[in-house]
Design a protein that fits this description.
InterPro entries: LysM, LysM_dom_sf. This is LysM domain-containing protein. It comes from Shewanella fodinae. It is built from 3 helices and 4 strands; from the N terminus they run βββααβα. A two-stranded antiparallel ribbon has the order 1-2. Strands 3-4 form a two-stranded antiparallel ribbon. By secondary structure, it is an alpha+beta fold. It has a domain of 58 residues: Membrane-bound Lytic Murein Transglycosylase D, Chain A (Roll), CATH 3.10.350. The protein is globular and about 45 Å long.
Length: 96
């Protein structure tokens, strides 16, 4: 079951010969905003921990990925600059 806060909540479900498959979700609007935060990665950082700290929910790590075009989130390199949207913007605009 897909929860309403899941990043897949707005996906289209389609059936193929193997059963029900999950479609692609729409990409979120990542246009730079005045209230975005810039964060420099340090040794030991993880996206789920950063999402918890700045967005209030570790499950929102994928938003940081989208904002920074990260395709392999387990390989954060120290010194990498990340753009993180404000918690208010995420709650009001991206999770509606």
């Amino acid at each position: 079951m897909i929860g309403r806060n899941s990043r897949y909540a707005r996906c289209l479900l389609y059936r193929d010969s193997d059963g029900t498959s999950l479609g692609m979700r729409q990409r979120i609007d990542t246009t730079p905003r005045h209230d975005d935060r810039l964060y420099t990665v340090v040794e030991g950082d993880r996206l789920d921990l950063l999402a918890h700290r700045y967005l209030g929910d570790a499950r929102l790590w994928w938003i940081i990925c989208d904002y920074n075009d990260l395709f392999f989130p387990l390989a954060l390199e120290p010194g990498l600059a990340l753009r993180i949207p404000s918690r208010e913007h995420v709650q009001m605009r991206l999770l509606e």
